[in-house]
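Moderator note: this is an archived Q&A kept for reference. The question asked for a predicted structure of one protein chain; the sequence and the answer are reproduced below.
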Amino acid sequence: MDNETCPSSGSNYRWFMLAQIWLIYYVFAIISSSIPPLITPMSSDLALSHSQMGVILGAMHLIYIPLAIPMGLLIDRIGVRRSILTGITLVSLSGLLQSLAVGFETLFLSVCLLGLGGPTISVGAPKAVASWFIGRDRGTASGIYLTGFITGVATATAITNTAVMPLMGTWRNTLALYGFLGFLMVCIWLLFGRERTRSQGREVASVSLRDDVRVLLRERHVWMIAVIGFSSFFVRHSLGGWLPKLLELRGMGPAKAGLLASIPSWCGLIGSTAIPRLGKTGTRKHILSVALLVQGICVFIMGTTIGPPLIASLIIYGISTYTILPLLMVALMEAPRVGARYMGVAGGLFFSIGEVGGFLGPSMVGVLLDQTGSTLPSIIALTAVVEGMLIPTLLLKENK
C-alpha cells in the first residue's frame, strides 16, 4: 500500500464511526429495499407492468454506473464526512418522493435519486474503513458495516407487509416513514461524523485526477475483482428485488412471501461477518469459488422447489451470497497500489462495473416474466450468470 497513513489501533472513536456507518447503511438498505415487498399494491395503483417495475427496480443501479467512479474521485478529495452526508440526504429525499409518485415516470425519477446518493455511501463506507482500520481489523470492520445493509434489507422485506403497512395504512405512508427515518440519520451524522486525519486528505488532494485514474486502470487485480463482483450484483439485486413477487406468483400470500424472502438477508449476517475474517491473502480465491458455486446451485433450487428444500436453499444462499462482497472489498483495500489512498477510485470502479449487473438483473427478470409468464427462465439465467463467474475467479492471482 503506497504511502498509506495507518490509523492508531488504539483509537476508540473508530468503532463509534463504524457504528454510525452501520446505521447509515441500515437506513439506506431499508429505503432502497422498500419497493420489492410493495410491488403488488404499487403496480396496481400506478398501473405498472412487470417490465416497467423491473426497470424501476434497476433504476438506482442504472444511475450508479456512470457516477460511481466520479464519486470515488470526489470522495478522495472532499472527504468521507461531507460525501456520506450528501448521500444519505439524497437517499432520504428519494424515499419521500417515492411516496408521492403518480405513475411510471415520477416513480422512476424518484428512485433514480437513490442512484445519486447511493454511490457516496457505498464508496465512502469502505474508504472510511480503510482510513480508520488496518490489518485484520479491516476484514472485521468490512464485515460489520455490511451487516447494516443486510439487516436493513431483511427488515424491510420482513416487516413492510406484516407490520409497517398495516400500521401506516397505505404504501405511500410506508415509504414516507422510511424517508423520515433517513433524515434522522442525517442529523446524527451531522453531529458525530468525522474525518480520520487532515494530513491524509492533503496528501490525496495533491494527486491529480488523471494520475488517480491511470494508477487504477493499470491495476489488473482491481479489474478482476470488479468483474467477479458483477455476478454478485446481478443475482443479488435480481432476487433482492423480485423474490417476494416470485414467491407470490407461486401461490404464497404477501406476508408469508415477505418473511421467506427475508431469510437470505438474516442468514447473510453469518456470511458477511464470520467467513470473511477467515479469509486471508492466498485463500480468498478459493473461498470465493466455493461461494459462487454454492450460490448458483441454491438459486436453481430456490426457483424450482417448495417446502424444506426451499427453506434450506434460502438459508445457504444467504450465507454464500453475503460472503462475497466483504471479501472483495478487503481484496480491493489490500490490492497493490490501492490502500486507503486510492480506495475511493478503486471502490468507484468496482461499483460502476457491479451496478451494470444491478441494473440488468432486475430488468431481465421483469422482461422474462412478461414474455414467458413463467419464473423458470429467469432462474436459469441467474444460475448461468453466477456459475459463469467461476472462470475469472479461478484465474485471479493473489499476492502472497
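Archived answer notes: Confidence is low (pLDDT under 50) at residues 1-10, 198-207.
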